[in-house]
Amino acid sequence: MTQLALDAEALYSDLLRGVKAIHTPSTRLIGIHSGGAWLAERVQKDLGLADAPGSISSAMHRDDFAQRGLSDGGQTQLSFDVNGADILLFDDVLYTGRTIRAALNELFDYGRPASVKLVVLVDRGGRELPVQADVVAARITLPATQSLALIRDDAGRFSFQVETV
């Protein structure tokens, strides 16, 4: 494991500016477990929003569920009705698009939102599905043999970790 020389805290500041530009009083925040949920929680706090963000698991709808199982998939927790809601869906790293597809399937199990906009900290390219983020703090390229993960320390500060897969 190595640390990436990409400043996650600076990228978070860029992401927050992008969210402020599209957030409305009726917007609801949902983060994909775990990095996306961390981002949604921090945005909620930094924008002073009263309503807690939702957290969504993509585990049950993944097309590689047989290989991955439920490990670190978290649980979906939505304390609000998604029917007719304008949703900002947060993820830490956008790569193939398969996690987003699975998260959308899970979200639609709970209702039909009016709109869903995707907010990601890093888009690393390599798309296998036609998924595009509405707010992106950075675009990078990594070889397919490496994975990028957001990590959060005890103080809530973000950094990145690169692993060889």
Account of the 3D structure:
- The protein is of the alpha/beta class.
- The chain is about 25% helix and about 30% strand.
- The protein has 4 helices and 8 strands.
- The protein has helices spanning about 10-20, 35-45, 65-70, 100-110, and strands at about 1-5, 25-30, 55, 85-95, 115-125, 135-140, 145-150, 160-165.
- A 5-stranded parallel beta sheet has the order 3-2-4-5-6. Strands 1-8-7 form a 3-stranded antiparallel beta sheet, with helices on one face.
- The radius of gyration is 15 Å and the shape is globular.
- The termini are close together.
Broad shape: globular
Task: Specify the biggest β-sheet.
Answer: 5 strands, parallel
Radius of gyration based on Cα positions: 15 Å
Strand content: 25-35%
Q: Which strand order does the major sheet show?
A: 3-2-4-5-6
| Helix/strand order, N-terminal first | EHEHEHEHEEEE
Cα distance spanning the termini: 10 Å
Helix-residue proportion:
25-40%
What is the number of E strands? 8
Counted by DSSP, the helix tally is 4
Please name the defining characteristics of this protein.
4 helices; single chain; 26% helix; 5-stranded parallel β-sheet; alpha/beta; 165 residues
Please describe the topology of this protein:
Elements: E1 2-3, H1 8-22, E2 27-32, H2 35-46, E3 54-56, H3 65-68, E4 86-94, H4 98-109, E5 115-123, E6 135-139, E7 146-152, E8 158-164
Parallel strand pairs: 2-3, 2-4, 4-5, 5-6
Antiparallel strand pairs: 1-8, 7-8
